[in-house]
Structure formats: C-alpha cells, structure tokens
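[step 3/7] inverse_fold.run input=structure_tokens len=376
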C-alpha cells in the first residue's frame, strides 16, 4: 500500500464554503431557511430560470416526481436496465411497474427504439438516465414522449452541468432530477433537486415535500395530501451555495482529465472505451469495460491489484434486472445483453476535479503493469 491513496472519487469543498457552513451552524437556523431559498434561486439561475426545488436526496425527488405525475398501481414506467438501483426502486415504491429496456454499449444510455417498442396502454412515463453525464438524445426522447403522450422524468443524477446541443440538462424538458450526493459532480452532502417546466405542479410538490401542509392567506394550516418529509437543511443548502459557482470549472477539469485518459488508454489488451460525447458531456465517471476474455484474472482480482497500488476502483453498476427484486418480476440472464455485459466488465477509474493529469498517468501505468502480467 502506498500512503498516497487515490480514491475513485472525492468531493472538492473550498474554505469559503466550510466557513459558510460554520456560520450557518452558529446562526441558530439549521433546517430549511434562507440558504435553501438562496440555493434554489442560484440553481434556477444556473438552469436558465426554470422553477427548481431542492430535496434531501435525488431518490426522494424521483419518487415525489412520480407521485406528482399521478403514477401508481397499474401503471408502467420505461427505464434502462443499466443504472443505480434508485431509478427502478422508486417506480416500485409508488406501486407501478418498471419496464426495463437495454442500453447502448458505448453511450450506456437507454436505447430509444427499444423504449418505443416497450410502450403499452399502461405506460405513463419514460425515466431515462443521462449515464455518466452523457445526455440521451433529447430530440428523439421528447419526440417519442410527445407522440405517445408520456411524461418524462429525467434521472440527471450524473448530469449537473451537462448540455445537449448547447442547452443545459435541466433547462428544458419535463421534470429533471439531480443528485448532490458527495460522489456526484457537485454536492450538498446528501441532497437533490427537481427542475420543472413551469409553476403548475409546484403547489402540490411543496405539499408532497413537507407533510402535505399548505397555509391560507391568514396562515391557517391545512393538510390535503399525505405528504412526506424531504426538505433540505440549511446546512446542506449552504454547501450547495458554495458549490454552484464551481460546477462548470469542476466539469472543465473532468473533461481535461478524461482527454488524458483517452490518450493514455492504449493498453494491451484494449478496453472497450465509453462514448466520448462532446463538450456537453460532464463526465461524472470514466468507466471503460475490462477486456476480461483476454485476461487471466477476473474483475475482482483486477480491482484488488489496483488497490494494492493505492488506486481505488468502483463498479457502476450491476445490471438492474438481475437483482432478486427484479428477477421477481420475471427477469433473467439474457434479457438485456448490453446491460449485463456492462455489469460484468465495467470498472470506474479515479476521476474528480482535484486530480491531476499525473494521477491519470499513474492509473494508466498501473493498469499496463497489471495487464502485462495477466495477459492471456
Ligand atoms: C446517485 C444516483 C441516484 C440517487 O441519488 P441520491 O441523491 O443518492 O438519492 C439516482 N440515480 C442515479 C443514476 C444515481 O447515480
């Protein structure tokens, strides 16, 4: 073990933010307050002025978004078989059925012709994922949704700062959900946000976010729906306020590091590299596919050998339909070959804004060493 351990991700918090959090802690106002308002306003400005609401997590945001769309028992939602399990879990939590479709091998994004083929009279929404920050084809996605009269809930957990044809993800479209978990491209410790097309669903959203409570002009409280409890703390929001000015700079650094990865990934045997995208790709992760058929070692041993060299490697993600919950819906091996191959072969290499190009070279050097020994 080297002492200089390189994790696969790490948040970047500046001193101004840390001091700001200390001030919030001393202020006496810890739950949702002025910093939540400031954060939502700042994020809305960043997204071109769309209405924005923060929450304690993106998982909660996706679940409330489904409730807002009136999705429940008897309904189907189309979603990729390759994502974090939060995506289909929330569909199950509102009592609806996730209908999986396969992803493309290089973009890792939901295959839209397959999504169209999966539409039934029960389909109410599409829930795509901008995998690793690479936007799905937004023209084709919204064309599909329009033709079939479907809601779209974009799981943009990886995609803060991403853009499609120059337009930021979350600045257009239907409901767009971001995550600010510490592993994501910006953080509020835990937290998330929804971006809405207009104001029409905000009153109901606000009730669903906070106990179903509404107040009339005199301040009398009423409860009209069984709302949950998803409001962000002012402490977390203050972290977000400190992160917002840095999103674009963080993503510039991510793209620079990924460019270096692409230069240095001339390994033997070769990885299957992810799609490069354009400058609208925010590179939440750099996750190539291991050439396991040309190696004498498996992925576990590869990760172990990287770890011995002081380098962290993640797995994002196992194919969703092979988890026991989703096997319970009748799924099995062979249903979604690309998601399964990604699930077997993917490795997430270190990528975060505080990394340097020398760190990328170190990762690639370690891989070349390991492949040299393990080559068939
Ligand atoms: C992280 C993540 C989520 C959940 O985000 P939380 O803020 O941790 O709830 C949902 N979907 C995807 C694709 C994610 O990566």
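[step 3/7] decode complete -> sequence:
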């Amino acid at each position: 073990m080297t002492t200089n351990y390189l994790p696969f991700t790490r948040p970047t918090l500046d001193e101004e933010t840390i001091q700001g959090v200390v001030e919030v802690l001393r202020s006496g106002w810890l739950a949702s307050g002025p910093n939540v308002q400031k954060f939502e306003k700042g994020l809305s400005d960043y997204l071109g002025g769309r209405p924005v609401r923060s929450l304690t997590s993106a998982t909660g945001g996706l679940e409330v978004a489904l409730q807002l769309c009136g999705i429940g028992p008897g309904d189907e939602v189309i979603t990729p078989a390759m994502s974090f399990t939060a995506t289909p879990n929330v569909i199950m939590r509102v009592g609806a059925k996730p209908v999986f479709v396969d992803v493309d091998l290089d973009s890792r994004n939901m295959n839209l012709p397959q999504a169209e083929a999966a539409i039934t009279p029960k389909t109410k929404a599409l829930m795509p994922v901008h995998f690793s920050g690479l936007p799905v084809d937004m023209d084709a996605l919204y064309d599909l949704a329009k033709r079939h009269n479907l809601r779209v809930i974009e799981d943009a957990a990886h995609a803060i700062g991403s853009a499609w044809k120059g337009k930021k993800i979350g600045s257009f479209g239907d409901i767009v959900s971001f995550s600010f978990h510490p592993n994501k491209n910006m953080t509020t410790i835990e937290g998330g946000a929804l971006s809405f097309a207009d104001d029409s669903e905000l009153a109901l959203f606000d009730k669903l976010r906070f106990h179903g409570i509404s107040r009339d002009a005199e301040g009398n409280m009423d409860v009209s729906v069984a709302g949950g409890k998803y409001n962000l703390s002012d402490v977390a929001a203050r972290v977000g306020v400190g992160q917002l000015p840095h999103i674009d700079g963080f993503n510039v650094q991510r793209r620079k590091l990924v460019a270096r990865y692409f230069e240095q990934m001339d390994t033997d045997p070769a990885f299957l590299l992810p799609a490069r995208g354009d400058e609208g790709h925010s590179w939440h992760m750099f996750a190539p596919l291991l050439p396991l058929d040309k190696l004498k070692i498996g992925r576990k041993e590869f990760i172990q050998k990287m770890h011995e060299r002081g380098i962290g490697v993640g797995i994002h993600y196992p194919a969703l339909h092979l988890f026991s919950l989703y096997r319970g819906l009748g799924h099995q091996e062979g249903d979604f070959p690309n998601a399964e191959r990604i699930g077997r072969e993917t490795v997430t290499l270190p990528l975060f804004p505080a990394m340097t190009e020398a760190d990328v070279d170190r990762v690639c050097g370690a891989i070349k060493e390991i492949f040299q020994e393990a080559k068939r």
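[step 4/7] annotate
The two ends are 26 Å apart (CA to CA).
The domain at 247-374 is CATH 3.90.1150.10 (Aspartate Aminotransferase, domain 1).
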